[in-house]
């Protein structure tokens, strides 16, 4: 069986084009996580707050981030896919986040094969309302979980996302190479 985190390459042309492995679905409250030891998707928890994922959410293969987890990616989609779906995406922005004192940034990406997102190339192409909704989700989704503190740290452009992906690839290589 293929391990989607360790066996799948980061992307065909990383950091310009990467793979996103979907864990959580747009419109859902279930927090699935990929368990690399199984390997497979497990239900980590149901979000305690009455919110839902604004878009498909998952991780980038062979990328390890400062929080000690695979690097997170939020894929702007019209319709949710399914847990374990691999999507070829273009990173377009980076949202900074602190989760319980750990740097837990999110790459924001668009599907390569969806023409509805062809016009989104960089941060300024994402409508402000969309950015506000994503920020609101990540600021509130853990509010009802005891002892959890999350702070969003603002938005950065495509180049920052590329730099963060390269950093995450280096951390992965150092840790698991």
UniProtKB/TrEMBL annotation:
Listed EC numbers: 3.6.1.1
InterPro entries given in the database record: Pyrophosphatase, Pyrophosphatase_sf
Residues noted as binding Mg(2+) 2 in the record, renumbered to the chain: 72
Localisation per UniProt entry: Cytoplasm
Chief site of localization: cytoplasm
Known cofactor(s): Mg(2+)
Catalytic activity, as annotated: diphosphate + H2O = 2 phosphate + H(+)
Residues holding substrate: 31, 45, 57, 141
Molecular function as annotated in GO: inorganic diphosphate phosphatase activity; magnesium ion binding
Protein keywords: Cytoplasm, Hydrolase, Magnesium, Metal-binding
One Pfam family, short name: Pyrophosphatase
Subunit and interaction comment: Homohexamer.
Protein name in the entry: Inorganic pyrophosphatase
Organism encoding this protein: Halococcus hamelinensis 100A6
Biological classification of the source: Archaea, Methanobacteriati, Methanobacteriota, Stenosarchaea group, Halobacteria
């Amino acid at each position: 069986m293929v391990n989607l985190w360790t066996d799948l390459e980061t992307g065909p042309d990383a950091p310009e084009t990467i793979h996103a492995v979907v864990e959580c679905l747009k419109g859902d409250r279930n927090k699935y996580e990929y368990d690399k030891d199984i390997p497979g998707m497990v239900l980590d928890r149901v979000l305690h707050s009455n919110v839902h994922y604004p878009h498909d959410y998952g991780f980038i293969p062979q990328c390890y981030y400062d929080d000690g987890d695979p690097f997170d990616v939020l894929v702007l989609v019209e319709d949710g896919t399914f847990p374990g779906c691999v999507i070829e995406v273009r990173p377009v922005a980076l949202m900074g986040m602190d989760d319980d004192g750990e740097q837990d940034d999110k790459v924001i990406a668009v599907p390569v094969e969806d023409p509805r997102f062809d016009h989104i190339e960089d941060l300024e192409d994402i409508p402000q309302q969309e950015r506000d909704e994503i920020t609101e989700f990540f600021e509130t989704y853990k509010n009802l979980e005891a002892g959890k503190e999350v702070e969003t740290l603002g938005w950065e452009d495509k180049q920052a996302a590329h730099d963060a992906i390269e950093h995450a690839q280096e951390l992965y290589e150092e840790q698991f190479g």
